[in-house]
Amino acid sequence: MPEFSCADYSFPLLARQQTLRLLQLLEFVSVDIGLFERNPHFLPSDLMNSPRDFTRRVQQDLDACELRVADVFLQIGRDPSESSTNDPDPVIRAQNREVFARSLEFCKEIGCTHVTGLPGVPHDRDEQDFALAAEETFWRLEQCRPAGVVYAVEPHVGSICADTARTRELLLQVDGLTLTLDYGHFICAGEESETVHSLLPYASHVHVRAGARGRLQAGLAENAIDFEGMLAGLIALQYPGKLALEYVWIDWQGCNCCDTLSETVLLRQRLQDIFIGLNREIR
């Protein structure tokens, strides 16, 4: 059976302790932490202001709900374009490095071995934007290696890695880089699941939610993502990571139109059923 985690930011209207308790009630043993400036549960600014107290309180809350952390997903600004990885301003990039270094320490303290970041966004400078993204991504990767932490980027709508071709280009430029792979960003933009399957060998973490053409997030009944092909590919690759259920509730890309609780439960059951069916075929 695949190992699941669930994003804390699926339930932003609950307090942090309520969210973690809910995940425990849903029988998750792992959580994905969204270290986002728009996520009231885990704010990077709180970490920077008081790293020791922040880490201590987070660990206490995790212990109280018997949860492990599968991934720390860092987004420094309130949206991907704010304090982006490849911001043209060297002052902002230097500040980003400070936040990343502190976030990596936080990761190590809470026993998490996987960090996700964003690749960067276009700043109307084409190849310069891409080169800066590769440079900063390589720096982050080099910080993670001696700490025993895997670093991944999540290609996403509006990023410099908005399609599979551009994503592969970044993977070629940054040796050893892995992906937090979310099919929804590619399917929303019109790519086929078969094309996205080609990125599975680079996945160290997988975000899962239903989606469709023009719909970054959808209910399971409207899903157009080939979850069967995705799971078959992961099984063939002996993927050791988690499947992170990542329904979100934000006023962006229509992502506030789903019942995140019900869809999380339905999708987990659907993925479990697919996994059981695939294993029967293998036997």
Structural descriptors:
alpha/beta; 283 residues; 8-stranded parallel β-barrel; 14% strand; single chain
CATH homologous superfamily placement:
Divalent-metal-dependent TIM barrel enzymes
CATH topology, anyone?
TIM Barrel
Tell me, what's the shape? globular
Q: Tally of extended strands?
A: 8
Our estimate of the beta-strand percent is 5-15%
Rg over C-alpha atoms, rounded to the nearest angstrom: 18 Å
CATH class categorisation: Alpha Beta
Helix percentage: 40-55%
Q: Quaternary state, please?
A: single chain
Strand order of the largest sheet: 1-2-3-4-5-6-7-8
Count of individual helical segments: 10
Poorly predicted regions:
none
Tell me the series of helices and strands, N- to C-terminal. EHEHHEHEHEHEHHEHEH
Instruction: Sketch the major β-sheet.
Output: 8 strands, parallel, barrel
Briefly note the structural class of the backbone: alpha/beta
Count structural domains.
1
Instruction: Tell me the span between the first and last alpha carbons.
Output: 15 Å
